[in-house]
Amino acid sequence: MNLRVFILAGEPSGDRLGGALMAGLKQLEPGVSFDGIGGPLMAEQGLSSRFPMDELSVMGLAEVLPKYRHLKRRIRETAEAVLETRPDVLITIDSPDFSLRVARLVKEKSNIRTVHYVAPSVWAWRPKRAGKMAEVIDHVLALLPFEPPYMEAAGMDCDFVGHPVVAEPQATGAEIAAFRAEFGLGESPFLLALPGSRRSEVARLAPDFGGALQRFTAEHPEYRIVVPAAAPVAGLVQDVLKDWPEATVLVDPNRFEAASAKAHKRAAFAAADLALAASGTVSLELAAAATPMVIAYKFQWLTWQIMKRMALIDTVTLVNLVSETRVVPECLGPECTPGNIAARLNALAADPGAQLEAMELTMQRLGQGGEAPGLRAARAVLDRLPKS
């Protein structure tokens, strides 16, 4: 009997994880069949999505409220589809507001095995989420090596399967040379500025990033500033650059074909001497490229007050957490000011090598050099399935 998998993802990052997992399952279990919801990368692996994944890519209360009834209907329809088709396993990928609601409805009426890909960050805050999740999830696939004990303590199986960043290709020397030539960088040292991928982030961070970079370039006039903008916010980034240092280079992916845009980003990350980045998984992309960084982030006032009181960790940067160091400097909340950021950048420019060992250790601990994360995830799913 061939393995039947119902798999669902709700946003592009989940689609990437899902596509790699499906490829791994096909390699290990050639007769596998798929049903569910996903994006283009999952479609490439044979998934015919029951409805467009874009319907689920909604973030923020203001965005969710107008679509609440529609999303609730999609949750119910998806759960009914799982119950009707009776797959051997239901795999939900991230997007917990959608995924775990589907899993709950499925578990209320069946014993279908449930696997969730991407552990909630209970090590950072709201640890009770693991217990709630254990009510509906049997098995968790974790991206970070320290996550399994938290999931297992709540009563779920959990396997660390590696982080997808370790499987991303790195720029070649030819790509770096072509990038420098195309954007007129010559041999100049340059600092990568990454103010976020959401409009709200860019709007909130741009003034402080711009002020800090003005101060930094006054101290280090030899440095150029390069901004490889995320496609959805490239226009907004263009608008804010008027207050940034002169001759800042914007790399707008919307001006290029997809393959060229990806090559530009790889080359920018690899060739940069330093980086200033918003908090997020971008720190792992910089670590993979061995680019020293400063992390800065300004939260909404209420969010910051809640985080201060509920946080279980003293750093938000994954490089610091995975390497068990605190070598990547952070300017968070009220510390996110032009003066503070510029001071951290100046110190980093004086000693950029201090982070290299921690970045290398981070990549090793995330699975670099081992089996591809998608294949590891597939093997973990198959190994934990009940034997018939």
UniProtKB/TrEMBL annotation:
- Give the record's keywords alphabetically: Glycosyltransferase, Lipid A biosynthesis, Lipid biosynthesis, Lipid metabolism, Transferase
Tell me the InterPro entries matching this sequence: Glyco_trans_19 (IPR003835)
Which GO MF terms does the UniProt record name? lipid-A-disaccharide synthase activity
Q: EC? A: 2.4.1.182
Q: Which reaction does it catalyse?
A: a lipid X + a UDP-2-N,3-O-bis[(3R)-3-hydroxyacyl]-alpha-D-glucosamine = a lipid A disaccharide + UDP + H(+)
Enzyme's top EC category = transferase
- Pfam families according to UniProt: LpxB
Its biological purpose is as follows: Condensation of UDP-2,3-diacylglucosamine and 2,3-diacylglucosamine-1-phosphate to form lipid A disaccharide, a precursor of lipid A, a phosphorylated glycolipid that anchors the lipopolysaccharide to the outer membrane of the cell.
What NCBIfam families does the record tag this protein with? lpxB
What's this protein's name? Lipid-A-disaccharide synthase
Q: Which family does it belong to?
A: Belongs to the LpxB family.
